[in-house]
Amino acid sequence: MPIDRAVAVSAPRRESTFSWTSADVLLYHLALGAGTDPLSPTELRYATEKDLQVLPTFGVVAPNLRLTEPPKVSFPGIEVDLAKVLHGQQEITVHRPLPVEATVTAYTGVTDVYDKVKAAVIVQESTVVNSTGDPLYTTRSTIFARGEGGFGGERGPSATVDLPDREPDFVLETPILPQQALLYRLCGDRNPLHSDPDFAAAAGFPRPILHGLCTYGMVCKAVVDGVLDGDVTRVAGFAVRFAGVVYPGETLRTQVWQEDKRLLITASADGPVLSDAIMTVL
After folding, report:
1. Residues in domain MaoC-like (predicted)?
2. Based on the structure, what is the number of domains in the chain?
């Protein structure tokens, strides 16, 4: 079905209510590789109930924790084959620290659709409020739908982050488990691109790739632990552009430049993985 930007952008925001518990938070952290040192007090704050803290990136996956079917790219005016989809950008703005358990309401909609000719870029935003109606966090994401461009829309922005002309202040290395994608899919993203070799091959990849949001969470954790003394409450926002794929079994190499209240970040494995990444800190 051809994309109809006007229908997609004008559609009312969808309202949904969902909950999470400490078990969901623990599973998410373990799926990111937390607990590799089971004697580390920092790791145990991610991997046990005692003094449990919640990585802010958990807010991005929390709405889909209970999903057991592959996700669909289906909105008013938009229907896209899942095999054509790649995650483009992801951002979260944290209005207050995420609780260990909560029942919240999200208001979600498509805010824009850009025409890159060979692909469409779909921008989605979700505002999440707690049980008393106070804003908890806001997420914004873009997905690339290959082969869905050419509908006559605007190309959209292409801003980049200029890195300082000096060596990074921190270089952090994070091993990716061979089974990392199989663990992470239990957090609600059952896209077979991350688990089925035949599906991955049909999509043009030599083997299943790691979820972009798993990379997103792993880099957030690496920076929190390596730069912010393991204090998740110092993260006010985290925005990234997905620059390439990463495969289970590789090693993430995260570079960080400190700049006032911003941390400028890149991550690579065999090649670039995240670019134009900014973590805003308190």
Report:
1. 163-263
2. 1
